[in-house]
Fold this sequence. Notes:
Blueprint lengths: L5 H7 L6 E4 L3 E4 L12 E7 L9 H14 L4 E5 L4 H5 L7 E2 L2 E4 L1 H5 L5 H22 L13 E3 L9 E3 L7 E3 L1 E3 L4 H8 L3 H9 L2 E4 L5 E3 L6 H8 L6 E5 L4 E4 L14 H10 L2 E5 L4 H16 L5 E6 L1 H7 L12 H19 L5 E6 L6 H13 L4 E4 L1 H4 L5 H10 L17 H13 L3 E4 L1 H11 L8 E4 L19 E10 L4 E6 L18 E2 L5 E2 L2
Parallel strand pairs: 3-15, 3-16, 4-14, 4-15, 7-10, 16-17, 17-18, 19-21, 20-22
Antiparallel strand pairs: 1-2, 2-13, 5-6, 6-13, 8-9, 11-12, 13-14, 21-22, 23-24
Amino acid sequence: MHPDISPIAADLGIAPEHLILHGRHMAKVSLKALHNKPQRGRLILVSAITPTPAGEGKTTVSIGLSQGLKKIGQSVALALRQPSMGPVFGRKGGATGGGKSTVLPAHSINLHFTGDFHAITCAHNLLSAVIDNQLFLGEARLSPERVLWKRVMDMNDRALRSVRTSVGKPTERASGFDITAASEIMAIMCLAESLPDLRHRLERIVVGFTEEGDPVYAKEFRVIGAMIALLREALPPNLVQSVEGVPAFLHGGPFANIAHGCNSVLATRMALAHADYAVTEAGFAFDLGGEKFMHIKCRQSGLAPAAIVIVATVRALKMHGGVPLDQLTQTDTAALSRGLENLAAHLDSAAQFQRPVIVAVNQFTNDSADELALVHEFCKSRGVPSATANVFGAGGAGAVELAEKVLAAMAPVVPPLPFLYQPDDSVESKLTAIATKIYGADGVHLTEEARAKLALFARSGFDKLPLCMAKTQDSLSDDAKKRGRPRGFTITVRDFEIANGAGFLVALTGTMMRMPALPKVPAAERIHVTDDGIMSGI
């Protein structure tokens, strides 16, 4: 690891004039660094099994795998999402990996970083304020009860899910807050390829509808220039490094349960342009981030992974097999065998995209040799390469076997991606394709409210957009209590939201909320700062 970020950028071939330093350890990289730069690298997507409180360590394995590739002499860069302060202070805590597979400076990254989330929050809320101002002045075509655009903040706060604005005024209406990670502007930032592309996407945001059912676009409020002014310095990707000196482009942070769950296209292109291998990840399990990576990010950008890595842990698989959290340190091969059904479901889903799939077993201290062997035997029986990865304890050295198996599995030429649906398919056909082929559901049910919203959107052709499913991360179904590989269930869509600027339609399933809540004991309670300014607990 270098003490400064500048030598890391130089090793990648990034010119000094394209580096915008944020202190010694962090920088932004100008989009000019991509000009006339071929995308020479091969993309490796890291996903995972369905998450549990036992932990899977997808980010840790992504970092460890990149360090393993570096150990065996490969040119490699990471392309990851940046953390949201909602989970940092909520249930999950930080999101910079762990142990000897961490990106640094972790505390800065987990908190304000280079200010991207603040810029996105401000741009989103500027539009919100102007909408309400024009409603108050009677200048907007909008009907107050048909305003769809909410406000956002980068914090978990259930009390803000439902609010009333302009109380006591003729334009009083029901509204609410989403978390910044679910903002359409976050998705736009992660999918935009340039400043002009960013402008066009912001202009076509649908903020609501008229009484007659016609869409009202953000460009009508005459503040796109001001929004771009807030976002201009956030658009270039951020550059940091891992503890072993692997370059890491961290940029964007949409959640995969309530948004599309992928880091920015620009950060991924930076990694592919400056290294032979780019390791990226998509949020939560393959049914969420993995599916959206293919159908949203890759469909829009033309990117395609050369290989898919599915992360699993013995602990999480046992939990899917019915073992309580406080008993996971005990060897239980019977429960592990039952839990392997969850891994099987994600392997089946990933296989539909016709690229090599490799299983990384993220090793924990209490994993027994028999349990690890059982997972590898299961993978072998399916013809899927697998490797134990001790990335937390050993860093890159613990991922050498995994790195070698990933390289060995790659085809000489990356084939085009097959998609499970086409944008012109009906919304119900698209929903059914995802629900049956990815989740393993029997079908899909739309509530009357969802059908009414869809009919409104379809009048303007928004039903021809790709889908972004808002679904619990804790189950393949829309019931968070159903672990393992549930069968005989139906996915219920209760509502739709439009993200026309980002280029997708959001289907809200089950009880998913786009503003998370704090747990009974928030992670914020364990964070402390000494009188000397030393921080702990993140």
